[in-house]
């Protein structure tokens, strides 16, 4: 896994992180990119991490990204929402706002697990 991804998305971010998984050949990704960047530019209360699945295939595999564009939303280092395919900007903003309000306990309770959503199940301590 790339150090940048691990640091910015999983460990150090105090804000929600929107991962925009895309590929250079994807027309849907090209259509979504300006809208996603505009959404991020208008909000400093979440972090945008762009993931080129061709350059980072290990991360794409780990998070079971089977199609692009895919949007992953992390809060407190936990995957709390995901969407594959195009999405309206307003709907994406609402998903991010929902993640913003999550406490660490709520993020843990809402963490997406399972074979198609997360590469492993976290052990409850």
Describe the structure.
This protein is α+β, with helices and mostly antiparallel strands and 125 residues long. It has one domain: 3-Layer(aba) Sandwich (Glutaredoxin). The chain has five helices and four strands. It has a four-stranded mixed sheet, sandwiched between helices. Strand 1 (17-22), helix 2 (27-41) and strand 2 (47-52) form a beta-alpha-beta unit. The longest helix is centred in the first third of the chain and has 15 residues, at 27-41. It is globular and about 40 Å long. The relative contact order is 0.18.
CATH overall fold name: Glutaredoxin
Average predicted local confidence, pLDDT: 90
CATH architecture descriptor name: 3-Layer(aba) Sandwich
Shape designation = globular
Give a short account of the largest sheet. 4 strands, mixed
Labels describing this entry:
5 helices, Glutaredoxin, 125 residues, globular, 4-stranded mixed sheet, 38% helix, alpha+beta
Task: Map the helices and strands.
Elements: H1 3-11, E1 17-22, H2 27-41, E2 47-52, H3 57-62, E3 70-75, E4 78-84, H4 89-100, H5 104-109
Parallel strand pairs: 1-2
Antiparallel strand pairs: 1-3, 3-4
Quick description:
This protein is about 40% helix and about 20% strand.
């Amino acid at each position: 896994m790339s150090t940048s991804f691990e640091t910015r998305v999983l460990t150090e971010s105090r804000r929600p992180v929107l991962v925009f998984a895309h590929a250079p050949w994807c027309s849907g990704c090209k259509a979504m990119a300006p809208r996603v960047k505009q959404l991020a530019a208008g909000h400093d209360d979440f972090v945008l991490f762009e993931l080129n699945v061709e350059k980072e295939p290990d991360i794409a595999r780990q998070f079971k990204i089977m199609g692009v564009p895919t949007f992953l939303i992390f809060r407190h280092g936990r995957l709390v929402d995901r969407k594959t395919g195009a999405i309206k900007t307003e709907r994406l903003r609402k998903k991010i706002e929902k993640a913003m309000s999550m406490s660490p306990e709520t993020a843990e309770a809402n963490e997406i697990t399972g074979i198609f959503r997360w590469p492993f199940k976290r052990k409850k301590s």
